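Comment thread on ticket #2218

A.B. wrote:
> Attaching the input chain for the structure job we discussed in standup.
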Amino acid sequence: VQLQASGGGLVQPGASLRLSCVASGFNFHDYAIGWFRQAPGEAREFVASISWRASSTHYADSVKGRFTISRDNAKNTVFLQMNSLKPEDTAVFYCAVGLSAVPTTTPGRHRYWGQGTLVTVSS
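C.D. wrote:
> Ran it. Output below, let me know if you need it in another format.
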């Protein structure tokens, strides 16, 4: 199983980024996928998750209205569109495969993790 996250970078406050997570080695379309992030010195926290058919999504309160999670099962890819970025969004962002088709906010309910992509929001 491999999860390759990309799309991070250094942006100014208010800017947008689109993260991608390309998966391989398992039946991608059978599982929910989550995005998490970890800031320096902080615990890993939930950002967003999406069900296997994209019929259900969940967001952390801190990103609601600014971030949008989506997926393309034909391309084994999950996206995280991040708008109106704030300095407090600075973190390494990880994608992870859920234990089932139902999305969850709990890191422990995800079995495989990508290597992460760094997002830095600074002026």
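A.B. wrote:
> Thanks. Noting for the ticket: The radius of gyration is 13 Å.
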